[in-house]
């Protein structure tokens, strides 16, 4: 959130200075409005407005990012001074000084450490009490400082503690994200070299193999190809998670052939049946479609019950892939987060399969959903007809 001159949210010196500039600008505008209610002190209020404007301009123009991270805190000292001037301008009425003093403390608590908040106690006390003393306010009014200033400081300490906790959490999550990215890249890239060696060995053996050995080597070659695609899929997960974008290589493919090729990676003893029109052609990325289908089949075999039925039909402007199991269905507690990351994590998996399905479906311009069946559930993915 550090880029862009008009952005107010975020942390760091520039964000702190911009927020201080906005607070001072608002204070200056209120001083100008005060002239309407108290024209007798228009010269003083105009002076307050000019001081607020000058200080706001300084906070916005100084290159704080080149200075110490806590350097914008000096703007707070100037702001306390202007608040004191404002109280004096209104003849010792601290109605506006109190709220802005608390607001300044809250601003400082979001950006600076606790010792700065403690150091602010001196300028804050001076800014609040001196104008009241100069204008001859009663001891009762002066005594309000012993309520307002400790309360403002306590509020600031609470905000600072919470903001510090959030910053620590953000740094921790950033470290986790760095490790996750490094792990994904390592798994996705480093697995390719040994996998290529395995594939070459299997291809060499396949040239002279016959019978059962040939079938076993063919299965091994298919699985090595699948592992390579899974490595690419890991990279896809990282790209989707970081940028939200995924490039597809879409073309028209016969749906029956796509499903048949995907089912060749399913174990032989799995009761998976395909019901696909031989003449139907769908406009998809072949590799992503295969990943979608295998994820849905794996999910159905893991959490559902056989038989698993795969259907691809045309439904108006969409082609509809349906993978249905005959199990107990989806628990009600899982439905709201079914297609989220880690939705079904546990001993049987990490819960990324359906999230990947949803992302691939969205990249195609379709969507993924779950439909109840009696018995079981049907996972449905749609693809636009082109």
How is the secondary structure organized here?
Blueprint: H1 13-37, H2 42-61, H3 73-89, H4 97-111, H5 114-119, H6 121-134, H7 139-143, H8 145-190, H9 192-208, H10 211-243, E1 250-254, H11 255-263, E2 272-276, E3 281-285, H12 286-303, E4 308-315, E5 318-324, H13 353-364, E6 368-372, E7 377-384
Parallel strand pairs: 2-4
Antiparallel strand pairs: 1-3, 4-5, 5-7, 6-7
Helix pairs in contact: 1-2, 1-3, 1-4, 2-3, 3-4, 3-6, 4-8, 8-10, 9-10, 11-12, 12-13
Catalytic activity: ATP + protein L-histidine = ADP + protein N-phospho-L-histidine
Transmembrane segments: 20-38, 45-64, 76-108, 115-134, 140-163
Protein name: histidine kinase
CA(first)-CA(last) distance: 40 Å
Q: Major β-sheet, in short?
A: 5 strands, mixed
Element order: H for helix, E for strand: HHHHHHHHHHEHEEHEEHEE
Weakly predicted, low-confidence segments: 1-6, 345-351
Dominant shape: elongated
Q: How are strands sequenced across the largest beta sheet?
A: 2-4-5-7-6
Sheet/helix structural class: alpha+beta
| Residue share in helix | 55-70%
- Tally of individual helices: 13
| Extended strand count | 7
The rounded Rg comes to 33 Å
Mean pLDDT: 83
